[in-house]
Amino acid sequence: MSGATFFPKPEISVTNPASAAAAMAAPNPSLFSGSRTLAGRLTDAFLAVRSETERRAEPLTPEDQMVQSMPDASPTKWHRAHTTWFWEQFLLGEHSPGYIPFHPDYAFLFNSYYVGVGPRHARAQRGHLTRPGAEEITAYRRHVDAAVVKFFHDTSDKMLAGLIPLIEAGLNHEQQHQELMLTDILHAFAQNPMAPAYDTLWTSPAPHAGSGWTRLIEGIHTIGHQGDNFHFDNEKPAHRVLVGPVKLARGLVTNADWLAFMDDGGYRTASLWLMDGFAAATGEAWEAPGYWRKTADGWQVMTLGGLRPIDANAPVCHVSYYEADAFARWSGKHLPTEMEWEVAARAEQLDDAFGMVWQWTRSAYSPYPGYRASQDVLGEYNGKFMVNQLVLRGSSLATPERHSRVSYRNFFYPHHRWQFTGLRLADYGA
Amino acid sequence: MSGATFFPKPEISVTNPASAAAAMAAPNPSLFSGSRTLAGRLTDAFLAVRSETERRAEPLTPEDQMVQSMPDASPTKWHRAHTTWFWEQFLLGEHSPGYIPFHPDYAFLFNSYYVGVGPRHARAQRGHLTRPGAEEITAYRRHVDAAVVKFFHDTSDKMLAGLIPLIEAGLNHEQQHQELMLTDILHAFAQNPMAPAYDTLWTSPAPHAGSGWTRLIEGIHTIGHQGDNFHFDNEKPAHRVLVGPVKLARGLVTNADWLAFMDDGGYRTASLWLMDGFAAATGEAWEAPGYWRKTADGWQVMTLGGLRPIDANAPVCHVSYYEADAFARWSGKHLPTEMEWEVAARAEQLDDAFGMVWQWTRSAYSPYPGYRASQDVLGEYNGKFMVNQLVLRGSSLATPERHSRVSYRNFFYPHHRWQFTGLRLADYGA
Amino acid sequence: MSGATFFPKPEISVTNPASAAAAMAAPNPSLFSGSRTLAGRLTDAFLAVRSETERRAEPLTPEDQMVQSMPDASPTKWHRAHTTWFWEQFLLGEHSPGYIPFHPDYAFLFNSYYVGVGPRHARAQRGHLTRPGAEEITAYRRHVDAAVVKFFHDTSDKMLAGLIPLIEAGLNHEQQHQELMLTDILHAFAQNPMAPAYDTLWTSPAPHAGSGWTRLIEGIHTIGHQGDNFHFDNEKPAHRVLVGPVKLARGLVTNADWLAFMDDGGYRTASLWLMDGFAAATGEAWEAPGYWRKTADGWQVMTLGGLRPIDANAPVCHVSYYEADAFARWSGKHLPTEMEWEVAARAEQLDDAFGMVWQWTRSAYSPYPGYRASQDVLGEYNGKFMVNQLVLRGSSLATPERHSRVSYRNFFYPHHRWQFTGLRLADYGA
Amino acid sequence: MSGATFFPKPEISVTNPASAAAAMAAPNPSLFSGSRTLAGRLTDAFLAVRSETERRAEPLTPEDQMVQSMPDASPTKWHRAHTTWFWEQFLLGEHSPGYIPFHPDYAFLFNSYYVGVGPRHARAQRGHLTRPGAEEITAYRRHVDAAVVKFFHDTSDKMLAGLIPLIEAGLNHEQQHQELMLTDILHAFAQNPMAPAYDTLWTSPAPHAGSGWTRLIEGIHTIGHQGDNFHFDNEKPAHRVLVGPVKLARGLVTNADWLAFMDDGGYRTASLWLMDGFAAATGEAWEAPGYWRKTADGWQVMTLGGLRPIDANAPVCHVSYYEADAFARWSGKHLPTEMEWEVAARAEQLDDAFGMVWQWTRSAYSPYPGYRASQDVLGEYNGKFMVNQLVLRGSSLATPERHSRVSYRNFFYPHHRWQFTGLRLADYGA
């Protein structure tokens, strides 16, 4: 192969966002813009995110909103309520004197894992709560939305300015759940023999025709979040790393690639797999990516638009880390590290880095050097997960707008495949 | 104790139903009565049962109807659909030429365990089916109801007469699911910290003030179903058994009795328990009957009317066989056999035999001598469960009218306690 | 079939043991006989049983004696030590003043399930105890044997007479473990790909060529143990039951019969099986009785003599209740109840009732009417197991001499098949 | 704290092994030395390693050698046989024409996980194999030892030279099992209430009184194995990394340190723990390191010398990664990465780096950039484990002489604590 050679300068940073590709432009603009007053800008951003949550729930029936088809997933209704509880608990409860919670039991029902905040309803039982129903959650959301907007307008700019980090955290938190709303309902629909469609008109985004490789020579780069914009704590501290030499594929691995792996017996060849991975593959009888169904008309896949024939040119999706790693070995290649990915992405050398599928890296999800979770209750957010999971980079078709970031670190267990997860390859050869 | 002595004559039968207590009158009248033509009588009986199913579902939201709070329970929606599928599969599908099933996937989704009929959706996943929704099930029921009624009126009396056994099986089958609809939704509501009420106006039936004992001297009696009325195959063949001497309590064990057992450390005293029972009790941390909650105001219990204080005079309910057996040992008494129960019940010597709680017997659920399951597909009904379960006799507050029978054999595993299950004692002492 | 008709008189008892068949003569003679003094007779009986235990352990290496190949089984070493602990705990510890236990930790290590006696080592971990080793257990046994014999000779006849029930219990308890020593080591050897033989010269007992049926007309019979000889508490109280009409097979089901069942797809035909049974059969991939191996030379079976070809005429062995029940249904027959078995056995109408294979009955293991476990610590012995198990009658090739009894009730869970278990059929047809 | 400042030069290497501390001298000398001919040197090295295996087994009874006290552990007997099988399979079987395996079944029984070599006995069942016994394994070892030595002397130097990599692999493989022999038998003994000692005279090595910190400034270093000596494939390829600034503790965390953590409620404080770690700690009821027992005389710990009082100055041992991570967070410090550890160790700045306890790093066990497992059967060795485990560096008191190496990468799952595992801290503060 004759990949285009790319020589990033060590320590290069993205100096000119205006000229970046669309995929790169999206990451990390402020959520707050375009309005006159701070209260107005906060209100705009708040209502934009809140209404996006409702927009995603809109095609779903009350029954759809209640299902929890596996312990890792949560009901739509729960996502809608939990994100609302966040505002009630952390913003109104702590900063709006006299605010009365909408319902005294909701804090218990809709806390997720914030141990510091008190006891909470068992995760695996979320799908057993028939009440409150979808309509009551709608009322809950309206109640809290109104209270938050009123709070913004009743509060001094000075105090609001001090609350921006919290508000940004709440908005980004809700955006994360927006992505999960889609992955979780798709899992449930995929279990249904009738294969319901979330949106019959849904179409997958078209991939860029990326091919060839981009080359990174050895150099020192700064990895992690820098600057004032919002970020999660796991993106910090920014720090210097030595990266390269390595080549990264410009494009994502496609369904056509994956079918070749399958045809070559990839799922049955133990020597291609990590030991834990082959145990998962045989234990769960994997023979194709998640949601694929073998039909009389060939392989089909369950999508947000229902059951569809496989598109050979589309990026493969719903593969676990174990599968991604086996595919890479079968290809004679590797998965990149998250540092390699970030360096190449900052230099705008990766096609489809954002908005298609999250890309597995071979980097375990570990703390950056000197990372320390913040000590307040929001500090529970990321640090406690830093073992046994792997980092995914980029973003997916389900990621909300203005939520992607080049330093963003997503993470899942290596057997997980209900997210929109794919891969791109790395090559350490000459 | 000075129990009234009772000397049933061997082979006594209930010769004068007109004089029997109300509880005894209920059992086993025909479901078909009061109309002029056979088609008319079938239609009346059919619509009465079908509308009772819908009446029981009526207080429930779409979300309520979807929940499956444990693998043993099924969603309301599923009960409504499965009982409908029965008519479609066994009556219309086999006897109404040209009938087109309402939906091609429903046979797969709503078959329960009739292996002979084909593959079926996994039981434990019933709560993951968001579609079809409650409204679609309502349409399904209406469609099938209309088709059945039309079929009755389009079919000759001669053919209808031949179908009566099947129709009776279908009606009784649906009645069984009517009871499960209540037990299953109560289980789900009991898991909800908010303790929703199925019907806030619900009241438990008042027990008869039964006290003392009824004595059975040794005698040969015929056990099991005799005559032409509907019965399940497990009630056959009627056969002769030697019963007694034994005394049976006239009344049911009450909550007051049970509180004394609890106060005496009953749940923590290994020597009172069967070994498997104590393993269940400690493994599941039982310290009171099912659905009891210890509150600041004392013990309360989750009922169809919501959370209510314990009524000391009411029969204890939601106890497993293991608990019933431990209680009997603690009392210095035993549980009766199902034969003893039936003999005493036939002689109208038991109070609250029907309509309060099912009563655990110490009889394992085994085939009667020479029992052979019928070879048609309905023959899967009862015989395959005849191991590892115990017989309960009588009926409960959730049992539909006209479904009780003195020869009725209900059965559950010894750890089960989500049914309306209680006990009465037996005494083999002098 | 033309079974010989047999009319037992109701209430018949075995009035003339001298004339009974050898198989019937064995059951229930006293273990104490032939010696001059009471102390002498006790010593003879004691040493006879104790040396039989050692004789059974003799072919085994120290490693063999340590294995616990599944939680239900126990190491040989443990059986040898536990039976010794019994004497130390209940005889010497309570009745021999000043007796010092051989080792202070052994009571904890070698108690089995006597909750009343104190805490005990976890059952499933017995195979993890490398020390004390087989040699130390030999020393332990010698120490206790000497102390018991000395105790017998130092104690007055009057006091000894009062201890006879305890001593009989200890001897019968040890005999039960003698049978388990063989079943447990055979399970371990059967897991070993090298198929070691317990005794290469071992031969299975020859079956009597029983064929045809014995008929029981309806009659009242007394079931259970009567008289003064030793018995377990579960054989009491003797009580009257109505038995028949039924026919029982004179002989046991053979391997030839079983191969016909297998050839007819018995293991794959769901309609022949109890639901729980088919789940076990598929979950554990049964396709033949336990210990059968399909080899290039046909079916072979792991026996005490090592791997041997199937003997078509031998009784089938190592079948579970689930398999026995499925076989009976496939045959158009049933399993007998334990009452039917006992009535026919008392009348000497069953061939191979003893000394070949335990025979599954369809009777659940339940208390006889009015049964109450004794309140002392030995009372834990049988009563706590009276749920979820099935009764087996007769005895097996591994049962020690003088341990069989016509009223003996053995019991195992329906999935168990590591005991020497087989079946005989019953027929309720005309 | 006033840690001595240490400025390693980037790319520093250990230039003067003669002057290094004893602990550093040990790593990675050749196993082959001091003899005249190549065959002689190979024979010396081979017999030295083989006899060390037997020396470690010598204190153990046949029963001790059979126990498998958890699925992760293996019986001593199995270790002795498996390491022997290695020579038979890979050296004699492939390079000694006409060699006949000692026993035809041993390849099946004693293969471990080399999928490429064929089927193998289930790992979790190793403790169920009573035969072959310890004596037969001794005969097996003698047979193979003699055959190998004869092979060395019958083979040309040229051919032997080509086999050196295989022979080194076999010797290092056997040394790894020598360490496991001690960790596995200690686990079994620790389960025994009688707390048997492996060697009553055993004493733990004395720690160096390391205190304070060594500082690494930022610099580029080469990590991984370089040169011709033996190494495992996972130590390759050597590659450059950017390390620092960071400080590493000179000494290991001690029992005194750990008791302070325990006294401060460390095991009960969820906020100190990784989420998966706290689940393990509560699920397994950890309240102290592995093998600690709370006695009337205070905390004691099960060692190779039996139960001993806690030595406050000794390094804490038998802690899992989860515990090590929680301790580090409680200390306001971190665990080092494996790269940091290696850089400091190469510069001889770490006390007790070798020979005490393996030291958890926070580095996930991942492939070095461009790592590719070799394609022959020995290539199964390390690569397939590169997920879900964490790297430990250094070596332990159980590591055989001449087996340690500064680039050595040991790895275990984060919940494992039956190895001799401890930790040293890192500090990223100013």
Query: Major β-sheet of chain A, in short?
Result: 4 strands, mixed
Taken together, the total number of domains of chain A comes to 2
Order of helices and strands of chain A: HHHHHHEEEEHHEEEHHEEEEE
> Using CB atoms under 8 Å apart, which protein chain pair has the greatest interface?
A-D, 38 and 38 residues
**How far apart lie the N and C ends of chain A?**
11 Å
Annotated CATH topology of the largest domain in chain A:
paralog of FGE (formylglycine-generating enzyme)
- What do we call the CATH homologous superfamily of the largest domain in chain A? paralog of FGE (formylglycine-generating enzyme)
What is the molecular shape of chain A? globular
Q: Largest sheet of chain A, order of strands side by side?
A: 10-9-8-11
State the secondary-structure class of chain A: alpha+beta
What is the radius of gyration of chain A? 22 Å
CATH architecture of the largest domain in chain A: Alpha-Beta Complex
By oligomeric state, this entry counts as homotetramer
